[in-house]
Write a structure and sequence with these properties.
This protein has helices at 21-31, 48-57, 82-87, 104-112, 130-141, 154-166, 181-185, 231-239, 246-262, 268-278, and strands at residues 7-13, 36-42, 62-65, 79-80, 92-94, 99-101, 122-126, 146-151, 172-177, 190-193, 219-222, 242-244. By secondary structure, the chain is an alpha/beta fold. The chain has 2 domains: 7-102 and 248-278, Leucine Dehydrogenase, chain A, domain 1 (Rossmann fold); 106-244, 3-Layer(aba) Sandwich (Rossmann fold), CATH 3.40.50.720. The strands form 2 sheets. The protein has a 6-stranded mixed sheet with strand order 2-1-3-5-6-4. Strands 9-8-7-10-11-12 form a 6-stranded parallel sheet, with helices on both faces. The two termini are 27 Å apart.
Length: 282
C-alpha cells in the first residue's frame, strides 16, 4: 500500500508503457516488505531537464533511464560513474548524490557468466550501438582476451573499437563488417548479439549467425528478450551451443539498479519470477 512515507523510484523514457521493469521491481519491494513503489514516467525529450529537477524536488529516490534519454540525461547530473563515463550513457540515477550509472553492461556480464567465464575468452559482438557500447566495455573490463565488434556500418564499429582500445581495458580489439561473422565464429568462445534482429514483432528475421557456423563450446547471448527464444537462440540450441537469454540481462541490470538505490541485496529469484510471469513464460 502506498502511504505518505512511500519511497518512489521509477523509469523515464519515451515511450515507456511496454516496460517490464515495474512488475519486476515492485515484486522485489513486496518480497522484502520495503516501503517503495516503482512507476514508469513517459517523458518527452523537451521535458527531460524539468523531469529531473521535478524528481529532485519531489524527493524521488532513483530512476532507470531508457531511450531516448540515456546520453542527454548526463548533463543534468552532478556525478557520473567511471564506467558510465567510458560508455557515454547512463541508465540508472541515484538521487542521493545525483550520480549516474550504467548497469546494462553488468547485466549482460552476469547473464553470460551463468554459463561461462569471460576472463581470457575470445568474444564477438554484433552491433555497434548503445547496447553494444555498454556491453563491450564491461566485457573488456571483465578480462576478455580478444574482442571483435562487427557491424553493418564498419566505420561505427571501428569508432567503438578505438574507444575501447584507448580505455586500456583490453589489448586486442578488432572491427569488421557483420557480413564477416562466419570468419570469426570458429575461434570465438562467446557471441553477443546487440542488434534488434528477431525482436517482436519481427520474430522471423534472418539471424546474425546460423547453427552450421556455430560450435558446441560457443556461448550465444541475445540481448533481445521479447520473444524469449529468438531466432538466434533457436539456432544456438540447434547447434548444441550454450544459449544465454536476454531476459537475464534485463533481470541483472534491474538487480544492480535496486542495489544502488536501496543499499540492499535484491531478491533476484523473486524478480526473475515476476519477469517470467510478465513475459508469459510460466
Amino acid at each position: 500500500m502506498i502511504t505518505g512515507s512511500t519511497n518512489i523510484v521509477g523509469l523515464i523514457g519515451h515511450p515507456v508503457e511496454h516496460s517490464f521493469s515495474p512488475p519486476m521491481h515492485n515484486a522485489a519491494f513486496e518480497a522484502l516488505d520495503m516501503d517503495y513503489a516503482y512507476v514508469a514516467f513517459d517523458v518527452e525529450p523537451s521535458n527531460l531537464k524539468s523531469a529531473i529537477d521535478g524528481a529532485r524536488s519531489l524527493n524521488i529516490k532513483g530512476f532507470n533511464v531508457t531511450i531516448p534519454h540515456k546520453i542527454e540525461v548526463m548533463q543534468h547530473l552532478d556525478e557520473i560513474d567511471e564506467v558510465a563515463k567510458l560508455i557515454g550513457a547512463v541508465n540508472t540515477i541515484d538521487f542521493k548524490n545525483m550520480k549516474g550509472y550504467n548497469t546494462d553492461g553488468i547485466g549482460a556480464v552476469k547473464a553470460i557468466e551463468e554459463v561461462t567465464s569471460i576472463k581470457g575468452k575470445n568474444v564477438v559482438v554484433a552491433g555497434a550501438g548503445g547496447a553494444s557500447r555498454a556491453i563491450s566495455f564491461y566485457i573488456a573490463r571483465y578480462g576478455a582476451s580478444d574482442l571483435a565488434i562487427l557491424n553493418r556500418n564498419t566505420k561505427k564499429a571501428q569508432g567503438l573499437a578505438d574507444d575501447i582500445a584507448s580505455s586500456g581495458l583490453i589489448g586486442n580489439v578488432k572491427a569488421d563488417s557483420i557480413t564477416s561473422m562466419n570468419d570469426y565464429l570458429d575461434e570465438a568462445d562467446i557471441l553477443i548479439d546487440t542488434t534488434p534482429l528477431g525482436m517482436h514483432p519481427h520474430t522471423d528475421d534472418e539471424p546474425i549467425a546460423l547453427a552450421e557456423s556455430m560450435h558446441e563450446g560457443l556461448a550465444v547471448f541475445d540481448a533481445v528478450y521479447n520473444p524469449n527464444e529468438t531466432v538466434l537462440i533457436k539456432e544456438a540450441i540447434k547447434a548444441g551451443a550454450k544459449p544465454v537469454y536476454g531476459i537475464k540481462m534485463l533481470l541483472y541490470q534491474g538487480a544492480e539498479s535496486f542495489r544502488i538505490w536501496t543499499g540492499q541485496e535484491p531478491p533476484v529469484d523473486v524478480m526473475e519470477e515476476a519477469l517470467r510471469k510478465t513475459l508469459n513464460l510460466e
